[in-house]
Amino acid sequence: MGKSKRDEKQYWLLKTEPGEWSWDDQASNGGISKWDGVKNHQALKHLKSARIHDLCFFYHSGTKSRCIVGVVTVVREWYEDDDGVGGAIDVKAVGEMRRAVDLKEMKQEVKSNEFGLFRQPRLSVVPVPVDVWEKICELGNGYEGDGVCISKDDEEV
């Protein structure tokens, strides 16, 4: 049997205001956190589609900083909150981007009208096409934990 689309790894971008939940917050406590508080129906649909081992860019939004600063992986799929009103997924820090990639740079370098961050910039959870994921990783020199060794001179080893 072949793999279904649901079995393939997916890539996402999760937005957060650094004053509410920053990369430093995520990286502490073993790097695991509950990703909740999503209200928009389209963003909720995306969050509910996230599967174990999917990778997500951790994006700082807001007026001071609009950039991808790290990568997390899904460690628990969608579940309902205890109060039954909302739900969440659990994510774990994989690693910090070797170089943060800001929105302005992405808009200049990423040539994809399929990227939800550009098409629907207010959504807090958007899918990331594979080609866009690879380009952003290239722009940021990858991320800690990606299996690529970088020397002190920023050359691949």
Describe this structure in words.
The structure is a single chain. By secondary structure, this protein is α+β, with helices and mostly antiparallel strands. Helix content is 22%, strand content 31%. A 6-stranded mixed β-sheet has the order 2-5-4-3-1-6, sandwiched between helices. Strand 4 (67-80) and strand 5 (87-102) form a beta hairpin.
Helix content: 10-25%
| Structural class estimated from helices and strands | alpha+beta
Q: Looking at the chains present, what oligomeric state does this protein adopt? A: single chain
Query: What is the overall silhouette?
Result: globular
Question: Helices and strands in order, then pairings?
Answer:
Layout: E1 11-16, H1 23-27, E2 32-35, H2 41-49, E3 55-60, E4 67-80, E5 87-102, H3 103-109, H4 116-119, E6 125-127, H5 130-139
Parallel strand pairs: 1-3
Antiparallel strand pairs: 1-6, 2-5, 3-4, 4-5
Tell me briefly what this model is.
The chain contains 5 helices and 6 strands, in the order βαβαβββααβα. It is an alpha+beta fold and 157 residues long.
Give a quick set of tags describing it.
globular; 6 strands; about 160 residues; 5 helices; about 20% helix; alpha+beta; 6-stranded mixed β-sheet; single chain
